[in-house]
Prior knowledge:
This protein is α/β, with parallel strands linked by helices. It has helices at 2-24, 30-56, 64-103, 113-145, 184-195, 220-223, 250-266, 305-309, 326-335; strands at 150-158, 169-173, 201-205, 232-235, 270-271, 275-281, 284-290, 317-321, 341-344, 354-356, 359-361, 373-377, 380-384, 402-410. The chain has a six-stranded mixed sheet, with helices on one face. A six-stranded mixed sheet has the order 6-7-8-9-13-12. A two-stranded antiparallel sheet has the order 10-11.
Amino acid sequence: MTFLLLTVFFLLVDYYLYQAILVLSKGWSQTAKDIIRYGYWTLTVLSMAALIWWNVSDPYKYKPGIRSWVMVSLVGIYLSKIFGVLIVFVDDIQRGVRWLASLFTKGGESAPAGEGITRSEFLAKAAVIATAVPFTAMAYGIISGAHDYRVRRKTLYLPDLPKSFDGMTIGQLSDIHSGSFFNKTAVKGGVEEFLKEKPDVIFFTGDLVNNEASEVKDYLNIFDKLKAPLGVYSVTGNHDYGDYKAWGSLREKQENFKNLVNAHKQMGFDILMNEHRYLEQSGEKIAIIGIENWGGGRFAKYGKLDQAYAGTDEASVKLLLSHDPSHWDAQVRKLYPDIDVMFAGHTHGFQFGVEIGDFKWSPSQYAYKQWAGLYQQDNQYLYVNRGFGYIGYPGRIGIPPELTIIELKRA
């Protein structure tokens, strides 16, 4: 039933917008008319074929990239068309109003035809533009935005930071989502750009894959280049557990997660599964605490912060790796006031938004109080990385992928 409703809805959108195509192409040559009109319906047929394939086949038999491209193409095409349909609808409203008005004019005559034709042509052009703009933006976000890596720098002043760690730099990556990648060369370039910053320690805050550990196989020899003098530490995110895929058995799912953990180790990451490590220099220590995913609302809560935190008393500064930023308000600030900084990711900044100077806007902010960048409450900090990769829509508009460099200084 859902499939039939979607098909009818898409066809109605196509037919409705096609009226604008007819008006717009009225004065064109026959060859130009044929190209635009046949091209329009060819795209519709291909879209319907993709929708049928999705409904009658099992999309999860295919690579994640194939599923992503099919879904994004459908959403992108019809979301763009809906913008155009809204303009055509305005045209139909004004036509209806003028027709009703004509019934009350002398002799039932309508308004001058020339004016109506001009207005319809204008609105037809506006409809096509309204369709083209979001489609072009989405295409640009894929071609240019998906791998437009940006280095973001922050300096944090911590009163209890040991002298030997004054000036230490932390490089943070998050949300790699290797199953979504389509440009291996660009991914390699992002890692190389990150390594040019020469951070003292590297944190990866979860979501190495979309669903399956096998997704990262082709990228192990890229991410294993991530090295730092004080080590590379990682945690898991919500996508790493395979919770969003229907597995043949519980054992199969558990084996997948085991392979995911092994992938971290193969790359040289010290994966923290509800545990901590000490960084020690000149007899002084700071603690790195890492937990499994702990998400607010419907997201899984595998993390055990009490277990990971236990035994960190001798560290004057505590740094927490926790994938989901909602964890900060839910547990960290309430129960662990001596955790100085939490590093998170998860939101991707919705992969869409506007950031100009200090102004930030994204749909992500309606779901997450802390969704991108640095936040402070009393003496505690949270940094939310905008993500290295992408999921669903294979691109970014206004929220480029992030390479974070944070310097710790004594207050």
